[in-house]
Amino acid sequence: MTDFFTMQPGETAAPLPPGPVLCTGTAAMRRIHRFFLWAYGEAPGLVRSAAPGDTARASYVGEVLGNFDKVLHIHHEGEDLLMYPQLKERAPACALHVGQMLEQHRQVTQRLQAIEPVRLRWMQTADEESGAELAARYEDLSGVLNVHLRREVTEMMPVADRVMTEKEAAAVGQHGIQELDKKFLVGYLGMVLATNPREDQVELFKEIPAPVRLAYKLVGRRMYRKQYAALFPGRPIPPTL
Ligand SMILES: [Fe+2]
């Protein structure tokens, strides 16, 4: 099986600046991108899993999807602030690629903004029309992400690994962790872990503040299992740390 993060025909990576690899940004990016790929791959089906009129299910599913959207928005915000300006400055030959990635971020933001009112309406009414629109909008977003999340890893991150320090690369991930409250992290960490192979779960866990790790072991893992079962009744629950 080919890895998802494989360059497609006709795509070219940004020119690599000389010098050694300074950080493990690519590996960290793959881990969080796996979560988004999974989340948005599931989003349309989750919307369709609420029968018309089932406002209890719609408000539950809608809240989870809103949280995915929040995490995605914060992820891109961190890159826009802490990664792309640095890449542009330190690897000027990559300006074209940086421009493309920022344009893809803009396309994602536009879609998230259009989704928000539809999602909130659907949570209240669970009406068929809003549900169909919301599912279609998530499908469209998933299409954009399937290109962006792959190309950022294959085309941009090899450059980031050569021009950013480990501390700077870690700060991109930490932006997301700082913007989300601790309670939220405890509840959602399991889903992020579950989309990664075991070795990556171990690495991901190291990025999490110690109190959140402890709370995850005490209650978060159980919360994840309960939430997964509620979202996908009857499916086996993917194992996590
Ligand atoms: Fe990213």
Tell me what you see in this structure.
By secondary structure, the chain is mainly alpha-helical. It has nine helices and no strands. The chain has helices at residues 25-48, 55-82, 84-90, 95-125, 128-163, 166-179, 182-194, 198-206, 210-231. Helix 1 (25-48) packs antiparallel against helix 2. The mean pLDDT is 96. It binds fe (ii) ion.
Question: Keyphrases for this structure?
Answer:
single chain, 9 helices, binds fe (ii) ion, 0% strand, 241 residues, mainly alpha, 2 domains
CATH fold annotation of the largest domain: Four Helix Bundle (Hemerythrin (Met), subunit A)
What do the pLDDT scores average to?
96
How many independent structural domains?
2
Number of strands: 0
User: Strand-residue fraction?
Assistant: under 5%
Shape: globular
How large is the radius of gyration? Answer: 18 Å
CATH architecture of the largest domain: Up-down Bundle
Tell me the name of the CATH homologous superfamily of the largest domain: nmb1532 protein domain like
User: What is the C-level CATH assignment of the largest domain?
Assistant: Mainly Alpha
Percent range of helical residues: over 70%
> How many distinct helices?
9
Main sheet makeup: none
Run of helices and strands:
HHHHHHHHH
Poorly predicted parts: none
End-to-end gap: 25 Å
- SS content category: mainly alpha
Bound molecules: fe (ii) ion
